[in-house]
């Protein structure tokens, strides 16, 4: 006789509200007049996010590991990351709402007459809103899931909408669709590894939950082929999602091809969700076997930050450069993951928020720099932008300085927290590698700032469009957050420290 | 000690005026010079009031202090921006503001055709402010600020006509030479701080009594280096001749009467250091003696009237420095000579300016001659200054210079005879070159340029000259009658020394000898310059050649300091470029190349990406495997 599982709806409310808003969006898409859809969708999405955040705030101190039997664990880290994802989603949607970035009819073949007529009719397709909300719901489930099935479902709910969203670009559609297909193929490939890893771990422990896995490792010792292979394969799925080398190959292509607002959202929210899950799996599930995997993951951390920093130097496309810079940041955060202590956990939480704000803001600025054919991502054509549009260039420079970890920006505090946590845990070589690759990375950030402000503009005419109010709000929030978290980091840092715990 | 609240205005007023005139720019062109002159005059009035107030107080209470604000407070290092007006500084305040005001007035006419007159006056006010801070600071650090300030003002004014590259170079040369001295001053301050934990004059004085001889000598030597830089003393003397590039009022004020005497002030102010260190004192007298002869010799061969006077300034300051090195008894005479020199040398510089003004800015004395007839007032005031510098009684120099010569002889033994001899010889050479200036300029035959139409200068120019000439005549008598200045300064320089020097020679003998030497010098000059060729003759003695080249001071500096320095710099640049930059560049190159290689791996083919992932999985599994084994 099966009994219905007991669910604690109050604790699950944030996710359910987002899912509800997404479903509502689908209904709107089907039944509401085209002309009204865009505004309605925007209102639904923003309202849903705000209510979800409010609900999340309400339950912020009510941790529980049995909210949905043993499938999820609502605890400090989970709530913090969910909150961060909701904030990023809010900012992301503000920029996404500037519909100019999306194809009027995604199903029309690039260059076909259907596309032309869709463009002409001024049609706007608004599926991107419910798609984003579905992705957000997956992203919110991922960091709190505690068994492999839920983890996998969350991963797919997060990923599938993203595959679609990447292909929605209005301009350079072939590039966009190519990116979507690559992302899908490689994502499916990595999901297979994740699933295979889960199966092996189930075979090892006889349990699907992280707690069961821990108990099994403690019971039998961590030296088993199934365990080690399973841990490795599971890691591959996670490392793919966070974009760690050598599972990063998709990142530059996808970041470049995707519509820029989606890139910003993805870079911030997906990374936060994937790191949330990674932290939980490594801190809870595989903690007992850390001797086996720690050196390998630490090695990946080093390779990732060095690779990201070096490879970014020769990029000529601003979105690719930011993609490689995000790979470098993945490496920095990984150093905290392998430090496995509480200060590393709170440092990671802080870093993810700081990085997310700067990333959404930076990609938001990229959406503004255009010529007659749309966004201009060729770095050489950004030369001298500081003279034409000093404010935009200055704000962009602020984000770059934050990426570079220059003091008085949030990036500095984040890097400092992460490296000091790594130092505390005795991983000096990680700190050395981190600081050195930061130094390499500073080069291309500062070079870009130099090009913006201290070089004369070339002939290619690039102009900055006046951003819509929503975009302006989003970028302003990001800039202010970047600055405030740099000047008064304790505002968020204390919160991160309070929330830096896992429930088993 | 009296507490005063007015001292700060002495500095604040001219500083404010300078800032105002510079910030307002061309708006202030019409009235800037008048404003600056009024400010300078009112500062003089304040100084005079303070002087009389001080006379009204007795003994200990004469010195006045004012704490302006707490400046530095780091651990045990406490420095207040405090001012100290005592018997020594009031002499300087009156000299600086008095002569300064006269020169402001003179400059109104002298600079009337200059487009940038307002800027000139702003710099003059800046100089007044900085110089007053220098003499009013109550600690070495406050003094240092003024010290640097006058250096800046001097730099700005020497290069005032910086459109001429040679003038800009002269300004730079003065600045660099001064920097060498400034390093000495900062080192002296640092040593004082490490030794005594304080940098106030009072604190250092207190500490000096118990300090080691080595420390005192080190501080003294560094202070002497500073004094040599600012006062154009050997071996940092080379800048003063070139500094004549500045407008003539500047030469009169800064490079004759006030700033260049800052070294004398510094040593006098630091008397407690030098009195306690005979070695440092010996260095001081040697530097003074060398410079007084060095300057005098250069003066004999200069055809440029301002450079001749500059050489004379160097030589006269040599007298003062020498006097300060003679211990407690010398300080007062050094200051007395400083004050009288301030009158007669400033007067003569203004006279030179007046002549230049009438002669289309001609400075070559070989193109002068017989100017006395057309410019009688200039000639008369200059003549009085001439008599004063020669030391003819009863003119000012007689009182001050003879006292120095006397004191030098009284130093005793071989040292006394050498120093006395040097000062006597210096007096003779002084007489020679000053007579040469007079003969070439004011008497003899016209050797003018065709376009020259000399005429007497306007009232605004000759009035200051006349006032200074009165000072040249009377100041010596006034300062020495009843040992007025010596008694006045006694609390500052001579507190615990009841000094009764044994007289080597009676004063009358010394004066007679000095006058005899002066007479010889004058006679030589008159005989030699009965006729003056327009072009300086080239078949002259080696000695004249050397003097014309400033005794090879520049060649020496260039060969010993400049060229090796340039070689060193070039070497360092090469090292920096090849080795250090090379290292950095090759790191950059390696990273760039690696980056390009990595970029080519990112080929866009999804199959390659999948392959990379497989390899990654294999590597990861292997790594975990290896660790576990």
From TrEMBL, chain A:
Topological relation to the membrane, as annotated: Multi-pass membrane protein
Gene Ontology cellular component list: membrane
Regions that span the bilayer: 12-32, 39-57, 77-97, 128-145, 180-205, 225-250, 262-284, 296-314, 321-341, 347-369, 390-408, 428-448, 469-493
Any matching Pfam family: Proton_antipo_M
Major site of localization recorded for this protein: membrane
Nucleotide-binding as UniProt keyword: no
Domain NADH:quinone oxidoreductase/Mrp antiporter transmembrane: 145-440
Compartments in which it is found: Membrane
Keywords assigned by UniProt, alphabetized: Membrane, Transmembrane, Transmembrane helix
GO molecular function terms noted in the UniProt entry: NADH dehydrogenase (ubiquinone) activity
Protein name: Unannotated protein
Organism whose genome encodes this protein: freshwater metagenome
UniProtKB/TrEMBL annotation, chain B:
GO BP annotations listed: ATP synthesis coupled electron transport; electron transport coupled proton transport
Key words of the record: Membrane, Transmembrane, Transmembrane helix
Ranges for domain NADH-Ubiquinone oxidoreductase (complex I) chain 5 N-terminal: 71-121
Chain segments annotated as transmembrane: 6-24, 31-53, 87-108, 120-137, 143-162, 183-204, 210-229, 250-268, 280-301, 374-396, 416-439, 459-484, 504-527, 609-628
Domain NADH:quinone oxidoreductase/Mrp antiporter transmembrane: 139-422
Xref: Pfam families: Proton_antipo_M, Proton_antipo_N
Main location: membrane
Residues in coiled coil: none
Keyword Signal annotated: no
Cell compartment(s), UniProt: Membrane
Example of a GO MF term: NADH dehydrogenase activity
Membrane topology: Multi-pass membrane protein
InterPro entries to which the protein is assigned, alphabetical: NADHpl_OxRdtase_5_subgr, ND/Mrp_TM, NU5C-like, Proton_antipo_N
Gene Ontology terms: cellular component: membrane
Protein name, as recorded: Unannotated protein
